[in-house]
Amino acid sequence: MLPLELDYRSRVPISEQLVAGIVRLVACDVLSPGEQLPSVRSMAQQLGINPNTVQKAYRALEQLGTIYSLPGKGSFVSEGDEARELQKRQALESVDDALRAALDAGVTAAELDDHCRHWMQKTGGLLV
């Protein structure tokens, strides 16, 4: 069973949560290229959701290039860094939103710079 967590009370649709979770598992190398995903029916049963929801998520993952399907065989993790790049883009979009909110709140560029440097030092980041 895949280590996926879904928030059934979230406003984010379950299919979108499933897509994000699988993208994260691929980007973090929990799922390897060529690895087979559980069948739609099996995944739905494991997560307690409708198979149509899983099918919708799998189609979205195919469109993103994260997985590919072979008729009669199942769905597999794609080769390449599409999932990692997608996760990076989404993370940077979140940073953009946070920066915009900070600037709207009156935080200065110098304060943002200091905060980022302090955070990177505290967490072991590479920012010098």
Task: Write structural notes for this entry.
- The structure is a single chain.
- This protein has helices spanning 14-27, 40-47, 51-64, 82-104, 109-123, and strands at residues 67-70, 74-77.
- The protein is mostly helical.
- Strands 1-2 form a two-stranded antiparallel sheet.
Uncertain spans: none
Distance N terminus to C terminus? Answer: 40 Å
The strand count comes to: 2
**SS field, number of helical segments:** 5
Shape, principal axes of CA atoms: elongated
Main sheet characteristics? 2 strands, antiparallel
Beta-strand percentage range: 5-15%
Q: Order of helices and strands, N to C?
A: HHHEEHH
- Sheet/helix structural class: mainly alpha
Query: Helix coverage percent of residues?
Result: 55-70%
Radius of gyration: 18 Å
Q: Report the mean per-residue pLDDT as an integer.
A: 90
Strand order of the largest sheet: 1-2
